[in-house]
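Practice problem: predict the structure.
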Amino acid sequence: MVEINWHVVNNGLDFLESAVELLEAGGEREVKYAALHLSASIETLLKVRLAREHWTLVVADPREARRTKYESGDFKSVPIDQALDRLVNIAGVAISDEDIKRIKSLNRTRNQIAHFALIAENPLATRATVARAMEALLRFIEKQLAPGASLEERKIIDATYSHVMEQIRQIEVMVRERMNSLKPIIAQADVPVVKCPECLQDAYLFSDGTAGKCLFCSYNKSGFVAAADYATNILGEDEYSTIKDGGEWIVSQCHLCADTALVDGIITTARMKATQGCFGCGYFGDRDALEQCSRCNAWTEAEPDSVAVCSDCWDYMISRD
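Answer:
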């Protein structure tokens, strides 16, 4: 078992080293493969930590776990999202929400590349995503993997660490330079600026009647998609879990454009909290500017000293009279 773990750790760190070397090469093709290799590194090393807790946690369905198949590698293992969930909620491993966001952001990039052959219009955006995920992985290695590692594992971890940190610092400098160059445009923007649902930079210009766009990575999905991405990737909400538990999903139909793109709880770069905004038409207002219809729960403009009724419900009541 120790021998198996050592080889797995070695493979995970080898993928990490490969990702660093590809980033150093700097071409668009190399950056794409850096994202793929880093994703493989993260997935592998997360599973190493899971296996330390119990080897069955690495198997996608623990009920089907067989030790002989596990040791031969003949089994379906957990994907990254599920590995993170098991580490935090079963193994009690401390991983910050920010680092989870960084890892999941890289995983989305990896899926885009692997399944749709897509890459960001600005290769620096992909480099930034890779660098942030690398930093999250290094923290995981330092705090959760290195402690308790065997002597052989510790040697290869230490040998990899400094090389990776040097590459991260170089990319961070480029990202800062790019963001500094965008500051004048962002400062003059006449629409709210929020954190981008894709690259997580504070550079997404809210909609002005058309789809909003990130100045850093060029993300400009439709209102419905952008709203769901923001709720999930920035606010950390999950639609399925929320509804299953009897809660109310924070993305709903906009009272102005009727697109399901109104998000409750947007945070702007100015750190305005409890605001609502539509990623479709660009509506943006304070939390108390809207209230939910007393009949159907749809958002409508708040009117003091009156029962909230949306236009659709109002029209329906009039038609019945």
